[in-house]
Structure formats: structure tokens, C-alpha cells
Amino acid sequence: MSLTDRATASLSTVRRAAQVLSALAQKGPLGIRALSRDLGLPATSVQRILIDLAAESMAEQHDTEWMLGHRAMELGRIHLDRIDLAGIAKPYSQRIAAEVGEAVNIVVRNGLQGVCIDKTLGDRGRFQLDWPIGLPGPLYCGGAGKAILAFSSTRAQEAVLSRPLTPLTPYTITDTAVLRAEIAQIRKRGYSIDAQEVAAGVWCVAVPILDGDGAAFAAMSISGPSVKEVTDLVTPNVTLLTDACRAISRHFGYAQQWPGRQ
């Protein structure tokens, strides 16, 4: 085999390994047959790739299924740590808060919860949802939580939906079927609405922040006492958030058509 042929073969192997890692990241854990079917690769080839990835701690086997290894996840964390989400988002948050006069929050996903990492208060008095930075909250309610949940993987959604939906206010959605329908609507329109689900008297609208695979790892929200419903009145807020979140998402590799409304 010539040097060129060997280089081509190596490149092909690298591409296949990248495809396997991407599939595990988006859909894992998966068995060899499922990976073979999804990627259109021979099962024997997938098995060899997984063995090589496991040798580098990039993939791990649990029973008959495979998932990302700790080294692959650590590399992802290192990359994201180098990108300062709060720093990137702050100019957008400040601009929006100044324009609408209400609080703008940045919430990131942490397991099955959301954590506020940054907030910018508006100038409409003290009655704003002043969610403390670092405090975790559920993904099944609230504008940012539902925006993240709606654009998470099916597996992640089921992990949240399979647990008790504890109400925070009388308006919190606690019916799984109703929440599933809500998630479908959020994905369709591209934004979520919190109608006093987290705090009585506080409404919220939120848009997801997406990674290169189109999965939400964070969200930006506008919250305050003014009513935000799915009507034309909320359109200006949604436009501000969508423009900001689209721009922020580009920093994290998202280059596809923006979901929902354009």
C-alpha cells in the first residue's frame, strides 16, 4: 500500500471514529447493532472502532451498550470551560435588560437541573425574579428550564419526565401528558413561556442556546411582572432573545437553521 493509500485509509478510520463518537454523544448508550444501523457501517467495523476508542478512554462499555468515555467528556468540558458563556452572553443580556426593563437570566443545564450563571436586572423596580446565581432549579418548569428540556435529547427528556413533577406554584405543570404537549409546542415555535410556574406574579419567556449538534445546553430568559403570553405582544421579546441566542450559539458550533420561528 502506498503512502497516499495509507493516509486515505487512516483518514477514513478517523472519520468513522468521529461518527461513532457523535452518535454516542447524541443517542448513547447504544449497542453495536444500533450503531451499525444508524451509521450504515458494518458491525465488525463499529466493534473495532469502539475497542480502539475504549483503549483511549474515549468510549466505555456497560453490559452490551456503549457510551462516551470519561476522556471524551473531559475534553468536551475543557473546551466549554475555555469558552466563557457568561462573558459572551453578558453584552446581549445588558442590551436586552436595558431595552425591556426586566431581568435577563442565563441558565445552563447541569444534569437534570438548570443553574443560573448570570443575571442582569432591568430598571422596572424591585419586583423581578431575582434568581440567585448558582442555585439549581428544575427543567420541567420555568422559561429557561423548559427551553433547555425541549431541545434536549429524547433520553434526557424521559429522564426528567419519569421523575415526580413537584409543583412550585399552583401554575406549575405537573401532568406528564400536558408537559409533553408543552415541549412539542416549544420546539415548534422556538421559545418557551413561564406563566407564574416558578414564582407567583412572575412571567418569563426564554429561548435555548444550542451547541454544534443542535442540543440545548443553556437558555436566556426575560422575566418580570409584565404578562408574557403566546400572542403578538410577546414577539418583540422573542425576537430580542432569538437574535442573541443565535449569535451566542455560533460560538459553540451551531451553524444550522434556527429552530421554530425565523
Description:
By secondary structure, the protein is of the alpha+beta class. It folds into 2 domains: 3-76, Winged helix-like DNA-binding domain superfamily/Winged helix DNA-binding domain (Arc Repressor Mutant, subunit A, Orthogonal Bundle); 84-250, Beta-Lactamase. Helices cover 46% and strands 19% of the residues. It is built from 9 helices and 9 strands. It has helices spanning 3-27, 32-39, 43-55, 70-82, 85-100, 143-150, 154-161, 176-189, 235-250; strands spanning 30-31, 59-62, 65-68, 103-110, 113-120, 136-138, 192-195, 203-210, 216-224. A hairpin with a 2-residue loop joins strand 4 and strand 5 (113-120).
Question: Which terms would index this structure?
Answer:
Beta-Lactamase; 9 helices; Arc Repressor Mutant, subunit A; 262 residues; disordered N terminus; single chain; alpha+beta; elongated
How is the topology of this model organized?
Layout: H1 3-27, E1 30-31, H2 32-39, H3 43-55, E2 59-62, E3 65-68, H4 70-82, H5 85-100, E4 103-110, E5 113-120, E6 136-138, H6 143-150, H7 154-161, H8 176-189, E7 192-195, E8 203-210, E9 216-224, H9 235-250
Antiparallel strand pairs: 1-3, 2-3, 4-5, 4-9, 5-6, 7-8, 8-9
Helix pairs in contact: 1-3, 2-3, 5-9, 6-8
How far from one another are the termini? 51 Å
Overall geometric form: elongated
| pLDDT averaged over residues | 86
Secondary-structure element pattern, one letter each = HEHHEEHHEEEHHHEEEH
Largest sheet: 6 strands, antiparallel
